[in-house]
Amino acid sequence: MESIGHKKEKELLGRLIESGNIPHALLFSGPKKIGKKKVAIEFIKSIFCSNREKGWGFCSDCYACRNIETNSIPDFSLIAPEEDSKEIKIEQIRDLQEKFCLTSFGGGYKAGIIDDAHLMNQHAQNSFLKTLEEPKGKTILILITDRPDSLLPTIFSRVQSLKFSILSKAEIENHLTSLGATEEKAKDISAISSGQIGKAIDYFTIPEKKEWFEKIIKDLTGLKTAKLSKKFAYSKENSENYEEMIELLEIWERYFRKELLLKIIKPDDSTQVRYNLQKLKSIVKKIGQSKYLIENTNSSKKLVFDELMMEI
After folding, report:
1. Would you say residue 183 lies in a domain?
2. Are 199 and 193 in contact (CB under 8 A)?
3. Residue 97: pLDDT over 60
């Protein structure tokens, strides 16, 4: 199944292929779960495809297309944090560098995609920088991230940046209906997916994820007026699983940003949350700080969550 949306980005990438002037390194940045990796893989397919005529396009059936999709072609590498790890290690970057030093299996390009590139640790980023400074032959590197500011400035300055945006509600609704969703269900999921097609597909294909989202919002409604002891109990219960905690914070962030926007647009609407404008700004800021501490430091997740609870 091909990626959804991002027409302008695909047209630009297609022109790069057609001109033969493909940059050595590209940075695909934008929010999570909007299809950046999917577009990156399709871009590599469009370069390697043996049945492509020109520009953007691929057959999905030739040897290259099939094996790029499964990361099992010698001239292509897809790097991401290893299982049970929160970072990309220097050994993974060195493996990529070794592959780039070999002669191309197909006689053309060698390509690499680094997903969640901001998770390269300091040693990995420094090692990767050498690859950017000393490109070997016909190589293409694509970094994918929702946090480009976490990359070394020296890396950022050596890549051509392409920013991706969230998808429209119409694009998400149309795709969900093509998967079998009713119009009502497609609109319901689109409204809570924040323009993230990956999240929308998850909510449709894995009902438990949508149920969990609804539970988080319901819990949050109760926490606003709960005693501190209950808030701390909730913090303890939800600070053990890293992935779920980050997802929870992202849901809260979207919720309070929406409330902040509504407060600005309709300051006297009595149906909104009980917080004033300044308090909403403070909560959104605190959630962002909490996410940063959990993702980038060794701070106690429980303590970080406790501090956030005192703000809610």
Report:
1. yes
2. yes
3. yes
